[in-house]
Amino acid sequence: MQRTLRTQIDVVGVGLHTGQRIRMRIEPAGPGSGIRFYRDDLNGAFLALNGRTPIGRADHATTLAGDGFKITTVEHLLAALSMMGVDNAAIRLSSDEVPIMDGSSAPFVYLIREAGLRSQGLPRRAIRVTKPIGILDGDREVTIYPADDLRVTYTIDFAHTSIGRQTMTRVIDRRTFVNEIAPARTFCLLKDVQALRSRGLALGGSLANAVVVGDAGPLNGLRFHDEFIRHKILDLLGDLALMGCPVLGHVVAHKAGHALHAGLIQRLQRDTDSWVFSEMPETAPSRSSRPSMAEGQVAALSASSAAR
What we know:
CATH topology: lpxc deacetylase, domain 1
Distance between the termini: 30 Å
Oligomer: single chain
Helix content: 10-25%
CATH superfamily: lpxc deacetylase, domain 2
Number of domains: 1
């Protein structure tokens, strides 16, 4: 069945790229309404995730394009909502960016669990991919193949020796997401920070919300030895959520990123003969309604300082 939050979530945080202080409220929503973003600073202008939502320029973040407005850096929140099984919610923002929190999805997982979920009596459906569809750009690629579940094979290849080439394959379910993917933080190279800021990006970035990699390695340590590839998978899951309901298929990505992810979503939006709606398969419930210390220690610390 479809689900929504039991109670609302209130967050105050900084925008990674704008550097602005942002208020965000995530409210329960009715069955069949889906995920909607509202700009409260623009008299409630909103965008709904319905499989046709326009995607803006993917410049180091996923951006939704409205009629004369935008909402950006949505991917970490969308990954958490999707993988935690929140089908219907109203997200109200005081500006054009979702707060970055600690640079991962873990604080959002924590807050969703604190709010709790309730069933809404309407069947949940998924998009089941029926034939391969993808995007190729030189040696960069992202393709989704038919599968009965959601799985990801992702490869990155950076010249920096602290990152290098990393590959990971995972079947993605709620437990895998919470334990292995959600805590992975966004990252950047120290040498690129000034160039990003000169373009009006990363103005709110800090060691508190991103892994910054200097010449000798990460300046603020890693949560996983391969945190970089895990975060790329996190970004992909958030971008897949733009389809408005869970996607079942095997995504194979090589040196991809938000731009190629967006291209894949746009292909799926256009090529509706490459997938069908189907019933969402049952997933194993979490062992506990609360995160364990292993799952949520960092998330709890981040959320307690950000939530109001």
